[in-house]
Amino acid sequence: MDGKTLARIGAIVFVAVAITATAIEMNRKDDRPIDFATRGRPVASQDPLAAELLRCSEIGEAGPRDPGCLRAWAENRRRFLGQAAPPSSPAPGSPTTLFPSAPASADPIRKESAPAGLTAPAMQADPTRPEVR
Fold this sequence. Notes:
mainly alpha; elongated; 44% helix
């Protein structure tokens, strides 16, 4: 046999094997089991946060201005990053400070530490500026 005939026979065998493999793959059943427990349930019954995130994605540009969406995105970030739940808000009667280790006398906002004769400065309006044309 010459080389040309051998190459043709090899090409025919290759094509036949490829067609057979394709036919077998097309007739094979899907190996993945179908989870019927979660397939028919709506998103809202699975996770209320997922339902809120879906609602926020559907409202478009109004999402960043919606307080519910802002809370949902913050909760989603917290869950994604694996952070612990934020502590509950402090009691309304307890004061909050930026630097709790600083002495109370260093806090200029507290009325106890402010001198009695000082008052807050009056707000001044910006002078009007002429329009440049």
